[in-house]
Amino acid sequence: MAKKGILLVNLGSPRSTAVKDVKEYLDEFLMDERVIDYRWIFRALLVRGIILNTRPAKSAEAYKTVWTDQGSPLIVITKKVQQKLQKLVDVPVEIGMRYAEPSIETGIQKLVDQGVSEIVLFPLYPQYAMSTTESVIEKAEEVRKKKFPKVRINYIQPFYHRDIYINCLADSIREKLPENFDALQFSYHGVPERHIYKTDPTKTCNLNDCCSRETNPSHQFCYRHQCFDTTKKVIEKLNLPIEKTIISFQSRLGKDKWMEPYTDETLETIPSKGVKNLAIVCPAFVSDCLETLEEISVEGKEQFLHSGGENFHYIPCLNDEDRWIEVVKTLCEEKLQQFYLL
Ligand SMILES: C=CC1=C(C)c2cc3[nH]c(cc4nc(cc5[nH]c(cc1n2)c(C)c5CCC(=O)O)C(CCC(=O)O)=C4C)c(C)c3C=C
Ligand SMILES: [Fe+2]
Ligand SMILES: [Fe+2]
């Protein structure tokens, strides 16, 4: 019988906080046609002609504020998840990053070196997006076809709607919520609106109320719907009134129209509407990273407090919490079982 293994895939971080390493990382990231989805020549002009002239130095400074002795928080946390999961399952577990090292190819190679030929690959993103889930699958398939044609890969699908995940996230938030808060804000990583239209095979999503409808044929590939639905399901579990919740989208880049409302603008306007004590959580990320530890916990906090807010309470991601490791284990085991049916 074929030997099985698990590959946990996350976004990836630069090798170090040196500007040249950040530049190399951003080049690979932003030249991905599923991230900046322009024709190659226009993408290269924008990324290599404009963005990479100034952004690496700025991003390197931001990375320095979150970097740990062991490296980037995102990679350190993903490794902890790997180690904890390895103790619970009897197949090899490795990690791979979509950008930079350890790459998806490195991860698959490590599994193959242990005799594995059937891999469950877990893109660590609760919601589907072209720039994340789809990009990971495309890359893994490219590597598999080129380097490991005999290996079979079974992909774990977005899990934002799964009860086990929602219960886990709701329990984690409940434990960390402060006693008194005026609102709980759900801040998701944004994407350009164009990405949503582009990946909608049904062409029925118009980015209005269709995303919050119970059913719509576009939901399987609508990142906006999946963020709304995650929020709705979590607040139901938490028994929180909808009036006490806010949803927003962070981390926009460039001049395109990204999904609204924007987190930074929201943080600046809500204190004048009576939200003085804020709790904020970032459920597009399962591991804390630059975008949560710096953009939200530091920059976001400053924006909120300077705009009249009084208390800002950041709720960490699931990281290596045992209850989350249990969810990862269950989702992986489901897919491992499927190999027998394929
Ligand atoms: C959670 C899902 C993510 C989506 C969707 C996503 C889309 C997306 N991101 C950029 C540009 C940047 N993102 C950056 C960092 C970053 N992004 C995610 C996740 C998603 N991105 C994570 C987990 C991180 C942190 C990585 C880390 O090392 O901690 C950055 C780099 C940092 C910076 O310079 O600000 C950029 C740039 C685009 C353009 C995009 C969709 C089109
Ligand atoms: Fe991003
Ligand atoms: Fe939608």
UniProtKB/TrEMBL annotation:
Enzyme Commission number(s) from the entry = 4.98.1.1
Specify the domain of life of the species encoding this protein: Bacteria
Name of the featured protein: Ferrochelatase
Q: Which GO terms describe its cellular component?
A: cytoplasm
* GO function terms (MF aspect): ferrochelatase activity; metal ion binding
The Swiss-Prot or TrEMBL record describes its family as follows:
Belongs to the ferrochelatase family.
Per UniProt, Fe(2+) binds at H189, E291
Q: Which UniProt keywords apply?
A: Cytoplasm, Heme biosynthesis, Iron, Lyase, Metal-binding, Porphyrin biosynthesis
Which organism does this record belong to?
A: Chryseobacterium antibioticum
Pathway(s) where this gene product acts: Porphyrin-containing compound metabolism; protoheme biosynthesis; protoheme from protoporphyrin-IX: step 1/1
- Which enzyme class, named as a word? lyase
One GO BP = heme biosynthetic process
What Pfam families does this protein map onto?
Ferrochelatase
- Compartments, as annotated in UniProt: Cytoplasm
Membrane-crossing ranges are: none
Q: Which reaction is this enzyme known to catalyze?
A: Fe-coproporphyrin III + 2 H(+) = coproporphyrin III + Fe(2+); heme b + 2 H(+) = protoporphyrin IX + Fe(2+)
